[in-house]
């Protein structure tokens, strides 16, 4: 059930906190994407998150806290981790630190680390405080499908039985930056709105695990990296290059699809829509603002599925700022099906 918490006269946060304390699950808004929340101390509740998402057991959950003291009770914060928390919390940054053993191992998929984040969202912070426990929450979607950026997306995946706190559309729309703080030089395991440049401005050198290549075996540092992710049912193709060549290539591929009986769709920069004539196009944000694309991308992928499109062409955005994280997710959604022109 979706409960709108934007009005004044309700006690839905308390109701949700009670559900969490009693071992239940709640759809929780955050500034990144909606999370599927449970008490991080409740092993049974945590197991049910993995079960209902269909999430592989070896993919750890992020633990959400309402304060730095709560985080420091759960993990070991070195000097750099403290600096980053000071600079970017509350915010879209998950710090992977050595676990103090308070959180059950299943939350971190048996690793001796824990991913901690203080979300920049009043509803989430109030829920954690009211529940009185740290909250384990992965994105509130069925494993593999696009992450949810509205309460309706959560309800579409999990049905009416789940209590979802509705705080409207997520402000950022992409999952948090995940940084491994257990090494001398921090390593970005998953890019997000807090960029490498932003991190480096606080702690100096920061490395980045390859954000644009498929997982090729071996032991990944962030287990989530090896799974197909963020993908709609439709086939996604990313088209990259000079703007004019990109539109021409997409028009060619689109028209070929039509002849084959496919139902193609273009996710285009707003300024480029006019070049596609009568072809089906959705607005994927302005050329000058990858933040708009970040905020819209998952909703666009879901809506393409809802409308029965079988092929999606995505005009690549520059891999700078949050565009870096956008392209990381879109490459995965496209299963690395990339056309360079
Ligand atoms: P999600 O919960 O769907 O946003 O995914 C969480 C991401 O954070 C996944 O890619 C995980 O692999 C990563 N993650 C969470 N905790 C840890 C950890 N302790 N060590 C490494 N990666 C983590
Ligand atoms: Mg996820």
Topology (elements, then pairings):
Layout: E1 2-4, H1 12-21, E2 26-28, E3 35-39, H2 43-53, E4 62-64, H3 68-72, E5 75-76, H4 79-88, E6 93-99, E7 113-117, H5 122-131, E8 135-136, H6 151-158, E9 163-166, E10 177-180, E11 187-190, H7 196-203, E12 207-208, E13 235-240, H8 243-259, E14 264-268, E15 281-283, H9 290-306, E16 311-315, H10 323-333, E17 338-340
Parallel strand pairs: 1-9, 2-9, 4-7, 6-10, 11-12, 13-16, 13-17, 14-15, 14-16
Antiparallel strand pairs: 2-3, 3-8, 4-8, 5-6, 6-7, 10-11
The structure holds adenosine monophosphate (AMP) and magnesium ion.
Q: Tell me the major beta sheet.
A: 12 strands, mixed
Number of domains: 2
CATH topology descriptor of the largest domain: DHBP synthase
The pLDDT mean sits at: 95
> What's the name of the CATH homologous superfamily of the largest domain?
DHBP synthase
**Terminal Cα separation, in Å?**
46 Å
- Rg for CA atoms: 20 Å
CATH class of the largest domain: Alpha Beta
Order of helices and strands: EHEEHEHEHEEHEHEEEHEEHEEHEHE
Please tell me what the overall shape is. globular
């Amino acid at each position: 059930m979706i409960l709108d918490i934007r009005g004044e006269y309700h006690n839905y946060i308390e109701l949700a906190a009670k559900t969490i304390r009693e071992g239940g699950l709640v759809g929780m808004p955050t500034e990144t994407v909606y999370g599927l929340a449970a008490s991080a101390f409740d092993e049974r509740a945590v197991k049910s998150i993995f079960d209902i998402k269909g999430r592989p057991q070896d993919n750890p959950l992020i633990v959400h806290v309402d304060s730095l003291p709560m985080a420091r009770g759960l993990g070991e914060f070195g000097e750099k981790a403290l600096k980053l928390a000071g600079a970017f919390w509350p915010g879209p940054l998950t710090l992977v630190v050595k676990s103090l053993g308070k959180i059950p191992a299943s939350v971190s998929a048996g690793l001796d680390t824990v991913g901690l984040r203080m979300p920049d969202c009043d509803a989430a912070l109030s829920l954690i405080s009211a529940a009185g426990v740290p909250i384990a929450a992965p994105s509130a979607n069925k494993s593999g499908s696009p992450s949810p950026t509205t309460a309706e997306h959560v309800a579409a995946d999990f049905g009416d039985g789940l209590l979802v706190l509705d705080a409207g559309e997520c402000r950022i729309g992409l999952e948090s930056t995940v940084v491994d703080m257990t090494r001398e030089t921090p390593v970005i395991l998953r890019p997000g709105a807090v960029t490498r440049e932003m991190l480096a401005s606080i702690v100096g050198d920061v490395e980045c695990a390859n954000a644009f290549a498929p997982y090729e075996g071996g032991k990944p540092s962030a287990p989530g990296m090896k799974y197909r992710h963020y993908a709609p049912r439709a086939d996604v193709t990313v088209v990259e290059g000079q703007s004019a060549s990109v539109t021409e290539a997409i028009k060619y591929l689109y028209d070929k699809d039509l002849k084959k009986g496919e139902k193609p769709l273009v996710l285009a920069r707003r300024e480029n829509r006019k070049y596609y004539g009568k072809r089906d196009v959705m607005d994927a944000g302005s050329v000058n603002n990858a933040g708009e694309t970040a905020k819209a991308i998952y909703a666009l992928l879901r809506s393409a599925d809802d409308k029965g499109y079988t092929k999606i062409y995505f005009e690549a955005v520059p891999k700078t700022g949050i565009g870096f994280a956008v392209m990381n997710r879109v490459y995965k959604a496209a299963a690395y099906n990339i056309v360079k022109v």
